[in-house]
Amino acid sequence: MKLIIGSDHGGRNLKEEIKGLLEELNIAYEDAGCDCDTSVDYPDYAKPVAKRVAEGEFDRGILICGTGIGMSIAANKIKGIRCAVVSDEYSARMSREHNNANVLALGERVVGPDLAKSIVRTWLEAEFQGDRHQRRLEKIEQLENEG
Ligand code: RB5
């Protein structure tokens, strides 16, 4: 699996923790920034991560900001992206099994590093269940095409 990870200044510390986990799990990743402590705008980091997942260059993306909310709103503007902002393991699993989420958004100011790592592990391991869930995703795709 190839993964791309990005954050704004509000998610940068948690991003470092998650990168450590990805290394432990032997998952190849690219860090799309930010790498500064000064204030940046989260859509500038959500956009390239979401686009590169949507275009198939990466299988999955992880986006981190203060709450995960801004990143998820921005990422979901990109066609083909199903980004779920998650703060518990159950939702992490469901976002894969039912929603086939290809981007995970986390909030550094919402979840602690241990919970965040457990969420990422769960999200990486869970598989999309297809079947009736596929039909529902196709309806979401139709919404995207209606504009
Ligand atoms: C930055 O202060 C903060 O607004 C951002 O990290 C994020 O939480 C937005 O949703």
From TrEMBL:
The active site is formed by C65 (proton acceptor), H98 (proton donor)
Offer one example of a GO biological process linked to this entry. carbohydrate metabolic process
Q: State where D-ribulose 5-phosphate binds.
A: D8, H9, G66, T67, G68, I69, G70, N99, R109, R132, R136
Q: Superkingdom, according to UniProt?
A: Bacteria
Please name the InterPro entries in this protein's record: RpiB, RpiB_LacA_LacB, RpiB_LacA_LacB_sf, SPI_LacAB/RpiB
User: So what EC number does this one have?
Assistant: 5.3.1.6
- Kindly indicate whether the keyword Isomerase belongs to this entry: yes
Under SUPFAM superfamilies, the record lists: Ribose/Galactose isomerase RpiB/AlsB
MF term (GO), any: ribose-5-phosphate isomerase activity
Task: Give the matching Pfam families.
Answer: LacAB_rpiB
EC primary class: isomerase
Keywords of the record: Isomerase
Supply the PANTHER family for this chain: RIBOSE 5-PHOSPHATE ISOMERASE (PTHR43732:SF1), RIBOSE 5-PHOSPHATE ISOMERASE-RELATED (PTHR43732)
Q: Which family does it belong to?
A: Belongs to the LacAB/RpiB family.
Q: What protein name does the entry list? A: Ribose 5-phosphate isomerase B
